[in-house]
Amino acid sequence: MEERPNTSFLQAMMSGRAAEALRRDRLLAAIALFGGIGIAIALPFALQAGAAFFLPVTAALVIAIALVPMLEWFERRRVPSAVSAFLCIAVFLVVANAAVAAIIVPASGWFALLPERVIRIRHNLRPLLDIYNSLDRFVSNTQATFMGKSGHQLVVSLGKPSSLLDVVASSAPVAILQMFFAVLVVFFFLSGWTRMRRQTITSRGSFTSALTTARVIQEMVDATSAYLATITMINISLGLLVAGAFWLIGLPDPLMWGGIVALSNYMPYLGPIMASLLLALGGLMVFRDAWYAILPVATFICCHLIESNLITPALVGRRLTINPLLILVSLSFWGWVWGPVGALLAVPILIIAKTVLDAAGKPDIAGFLFEEGTLTSPVPETPSPLPPDAPEA
Q: Is there a contact between 168 and 42 (Cβ–Cβ < 8 Å)?
């Protein structure tokens, strides 16, 4: 008569197999985690080194996604895809060039006027300069008292900087090529958008996967285009409001300053600070009274506080809520990688990434570190015993 197999031996064997599977899963999870960390560390330097390629492509994709609703509006009226894409690009270029011309043309006159107004700026800033000079003399005297005077002087010779014309002449061909490349990317993206979306959805293996893909694509387009459209309307309204206020104050070229305010407001937190500094410089160049010179800055700050605390949260907050810390990190990251253009693209890129991650799921790094990550399989604490009527060996 054969004996029933040892139950404790089978339980120990099952526990050993479960522990081995857990170790294997955690090893794979560790490899994926450290591989992701390596990619995250190397990616910024790769993007920075390849900015000549990645920057226009990223900017073109963000602009194209924002233009998708206009493209679909044309296509619903039986306009061919290629013609619809061309019309969208034409509208965007006309509006963008008009806005840039309204800023650049008057700004060139202000730059030419700056050397002549240096005396007025120094006169307005004389109280602050006196305080700074007094502090500088105090620091110099203190340093000379404790460290002594050195008989050697360091002479630094600086080369003559290149003229603005040389800089523009050397950078213009590269900028023109990048803009032309970006326009082509936008055109081909829009002209093939409907076909590409249909193929992406129909190529899924199941109906659930196709439905999820369609939902992710639609949410990404809706969130990005709605944010950019809403922010654009808010910034234009803010620019027109402050332009009217500057006209009443007597600040020359109010439309130029309104355009600067509207453009800088695309960069949260950093843009208004830059606009305030430029307005302070403009006020000091124009007005002789220092207190009257800060009136443009004070007007803009009041309008911006109302816009950022009342209007924008009421309009944008209903559709999209982003942690301010994530916005600051995104601005710092993309500003470091691609400069001012990267800072302008920071929030749209963050919206696209957030929409995709919300739909696809986020890696549970904390859970992985505490034994329950998304890449680990749950294991029961004690294996279930064999049933009483288990077959004999």
A: no
